[in-house]
Amino acid sequence: MTNDIAEQQPPHISLPSLFLKFLRFGCLAFGGPVAQIAMVRQALVDEEKWISSARFNRLLAVMQILPGPEAHELCVHLGITARGRIGGLLAGLGFMLPGLILMLAAGWAYERFVMGRAGFGGILLGIQIAVLAIILRAIQRIGSHILEDRLLWALAIASIGATLAGVPFWIPLGAAGLIYAFHQRLWMITAIVASAALLAWLTSQATADMTPQTQNVASVTTLALFIAGLKGGLLTFGGAYTAIPYVRQDTVAKGWISDATFLDGVALAGILPAPLVIFATFTGYIAGGWLGALAITAGMFLPAFAFSIIFYERLEAVVENPALHKFLGGVASAVVGVIVATLVQLALSVGGRVTSYAAAIGIFLLCLVAVWQIKGKWVMPTIILAAGTAGWLLNP
Known about the structure:
There is one protein chain. With about 400 residues, the chain is mainly α. The protein has one domain. The protein is built from 18 helices and no strands. Helix 7 (about 150-165) packs antiparallel against helix 8 and helix 17 (about 355-375) packs antiparallel against helix 18 (about 380-395). The protein starts with a helix and ends with a helix.
C-alpha cells in the first residue's frame, strides 16, 4: 500500500476545482453504483492517474465490506487523497448534491401534484410493481456475493423468519455476525444470543398493550428522521437496497408515510443521478417537509463521510482483520434475509391495492425478465416508465 501511495499521487488541484469535479460526477451519476464507480475509475485512475489500479481495487473491496453507498465513499476517500479531509468533505458533497436537489424537487412536485390524486393511481401502481421486481433482482445480486456457504444461507433464512415474526432487526444481525465469526465456539455465543432474545421478548411484552393506532399517531420529529437515516446508513451492507428495510421500519411502521408512497420514492431514486439511498430524502420530505428531508439525508450519508474522514489512514489495514471479515459476512447474510422479508411485506401491501392480479403478475414478470436480462444505465428508468405506462393503460 505504501509503495502505491509513493509512486502515484493526484495532481495538484484547488479545492473549488475538486468540488466542481465531483459535482460533475454527481450530475452524471446515472445507472446505479456499478456505473458510478466505473465513471470515477475511468476519470481518476485510467485518465488522470490519481492512484494505481491495484490500490483502487483494494479501496473498492474495503468500501464494499463497510456499510454505506460505496460509490459515495470512494469519492470521499479519493477527495482526501487529493486534498486531505476537507477535500474528502467537498468531494462527497459535490457527488451527492445534484441528486439531493433533484430529489427535493421531486418530493415537492409529488406532494403537490401527484399524491392522493386518483388519476395517477394506475401509473403509480404499475411503478410500484416494477420496483418489487427491481428489488428482487437486487436481492439475487447481493445474495450471490454474500451467501457463499451453507451457514450463511441458513443465517439468511433464519433472518427472514425472525423479521416476519416481528423480531427487532438488531437481534438477527448481531446474532448472525457472532455465529459466523465464532461458529467454532458456539457455546460462547449461545448465551449472548439467548440473552438478546430474552431482552427482545421482554421489550415486546412491555409494549404489547400499545395499540397500532397509538403507535401511528406518534408525531414526526427531526431527530427521529435523522436516526432513521443514520440507521440505514450504518446498516447498508452489500448495496443501497439494504437500507430499505430500516428506513421503512422507522417511517412506514410509524404511520408517517404509506408503503405505496415509500415505493414511489425508491422508484424516483432509480431514475435520478444519485446513489440509490437518496430515496431517504424523498421519504423524509413526505414525512417531515424540507427539514425532515435534510435530517434523514444527513443521517444516511454521515457514515459514508465518517468512515473515510476519521479512519482514512487505517481503513485498508483495519478491514484486513479476518475476524472482522467473518463478523461482517454474517451480518450481511442476515441483512439479505431482512430485505427478503421486507420485499414480502411490500408485495402484500401492493397486492392489497391490485384490482387485476393477472395484469399485476404480467407487469411484474415482464419487469423481472427485463431487469434480469438487459444491462445498461438506462435500464431501470426505462423499466419504471414502461411499467407506469402499462399501469395507466390497464387501470386509467
